[in-house]
Amino acid sequence: YTVVMKPYVLTGGPGVGKTTVLELLASRGYTITPEAARMIIEEETIKDSDVLPWKNLEEFQKRIAERQFEMEENLSAGITFLDRSLIDGYAFCMLGKVKAPEIISRHVKNRYEKVFLLEPLINTYITDTIRSEDKIQALEIHEEIVKAYIFFGYDLILVPPVSPEKRLDFILERVAELE
Predict the structure, then answer these.
(1) What is the pTM of this model?
(2) CA-to-CA distance for 72 and 24, rounded, in angstroms?
(3) Distances (CA, A) of 134 to 27, 124, 130
(4) Tens-place pLDDT, residues 97-125
(5) Residue 80, class by beta-carbon neighbours within 10 Å (0-12 exposed, 13-18 middle, 19+ buried)?
(6) How far is CA 120 from CA 14, 62, 117, 135, 160, in A?
(7) Which helix (H) or strand (E) holds 173?
(8) Which one-letter DSSP state was computed for residue 161?
């Protein structure tokens, strides 16, 4: 008898509310993983490195894929919610017209239990020190992420643009159906 990992992915373009919903999931006791891209940007900025999306996208995406893979491989048994997955990196590579790291295509088939796509929120898009895209770019990224998951054979569960609490309930209802 083996205990199975069940990684659920929360994805969508920048500013769709992933972090807020993940924080709510964590407050309910669920295991969550942080967004690898944000971690790498913070680390590389401190080091004054060129491994940043606006300086060296290909190397940056390679570093993200490695970190994401490492986090996913070290998940404990049970339900975990991921802030993006390896597939998101593929989408960013397609948008930036750089070669996607091999680790992505090698490992993404049938890897995730379900993928929740948070639909863009209306009139609440905010940039920050790491999220520099404007609203139009954010929507382009969102569409490319959708294409990437479909390309790798995933059905997306669309999470409506409602309050974070309603999104949380929506996601947990879908997870409970699978248990």
Answers:
(1) 0.89
(2) 20
(3) 30, 12, 12
(4) 999 999 999 999 889 999 999 998 866 65
(5) buried
(6) 9, 27, 9, 10, 8
(7) helix 164-178
(8) S
